[in-house]
Write a structure and sequence with these properties.
mainly alpha, about 0% strand
């Protein structure tokens, strides 16, 4: 009787042990499954954060650099461009004077660098609506004033040399001056400039919307990622990965631009226009590189915070 009782007791103990082991295994599997689900969720939101931070970064960079109308205007108003424009027009004027036996000094005294610079600024800033004192009318008025000044200067030079105009020659002076200013107008006028203003306005608005939406979504995703679980340092590490990836994306775009530039250069005519456009593109690429550097700097700060939080968690 005692052996029978002992046998039943042993059997009951063995059954209980099996149930306990089974329960423990099931609980372990559930915890493992929960951890995997938690990680997948964290990675998913971190990936979304990478996208929103990248969109925000590109939007801000485009707004302040690539699509900024002041930067676009600088293509056509910087000193190197105006110097090239002036030399181009001056060379044409010299050739015209030689062919028409007109003293170059009569043109040089009026067709100066400052005169060309002022007319160029009036045309560019007026077309891009960047300065209220300039408009299409002001630009044409200044061009007409320069033409009259050149014509008057030639006539005065002829008189100072004790010469007299034959019949109809004074009108030839006017035609000569109009030819010179017409060449200047041709060199300054670009049919795509007004389209560029429209593109810049629309693009700037789109970039602003991208920046705001990206910033709001990024802030929301950061909060979501950080509050996903109890291990804050792991969540913050995912945020760090997102900002690092965004910064890397900026540098990849800069690298792609440099590769394309070295493989195939743009060729605009005249050369001084080509140089200004390339300088503008280089500047925009540099602005994107700065954005990438700022994202990297923010990531390194976050890394330090993650390391500190992890150390505190392990010590406690």
């Amino acid at each position: 009787m005692s052996e029978h009782t002992h046998s039943r007791s042993h059997s009951h103990s063995h059954s209980s042990s099996q149930r306990h082991h089974s329960s423990h295994s099931s609980s372990g599997r559930r915890r493992s499954s929960d951890v995997k689900a938690y990680r997948k969720t964290r990675y998913f939101f971190a990936f979304l954060l990478f996208i929103t931070v990248t969109v925000m970064s590109l939007g801000i960079t485009a707004k302040v650099s690539l699509l900024d109308k002041n930067n676009i205007a600088n293509i056509f108003t910087n000193h190197e461009y105006v110097s090239g424009l002036y030399e181009d027009v001056h060379t044409y004027a010299d050739d015209m004077c030689r062919r028409n036996s007109v003293p170059l000094s009569a043109v040089d005294s009026v067709l100066t660098f400052d005169a060309v610079n002022e007319i160029d600024r009036a045309f560019i800033l007026g077309t891009l609506s960047l300065d209220e004192q300039y408009s299409q009318t002001v630009y044409m008025d200044k061009l007409g004033e320069l033409s009259d000044s050149i014509s008057d200067s030639i006539k005065e030079t002829v008189r100072q040399n004790g010469l007299a105009f034959a019949a109809g020659q004074e009108k030839s002076c006017d035609a000569f001056a109009q030819d010179l200013t017409g060449y200047l107008n041709k060199r300054m006028s670009f049919p795509y400039l007004e389209k560029t203003e429209t593109i810049a306005n629309l693009g700037s608005t789109a970039a602003l919307v991208m920046s705001i939406v990206g910033a709001v979504l990024s802030a929301a995703l950061v909060l979501i990622v950080i509050t996903l679980g109890s291990e804050v340092y792991r969540n913050l590490r995912s945020v760090t990965h997102a900002t690092l990836a965004s910064g890397l994306s900026c540098f990849i775009i800069c690298g792609a631009y440099s590769a394309v530039k070295s493989a195939k250069s743009l060729h605009f005519f005249p050369l001084y226009l080509n140089d200004s456009i390339m300088a503008y593109l280089d500047s925009s690429s540099g602005a994107l590189a700065i954005t990438g550097s700022m994202l990297f700097a923010a990531s390194f700060v976050l890394m330090a915070v993650v390391w500190k939080l992890k150390s505190n968690a392990l010590d406690s």
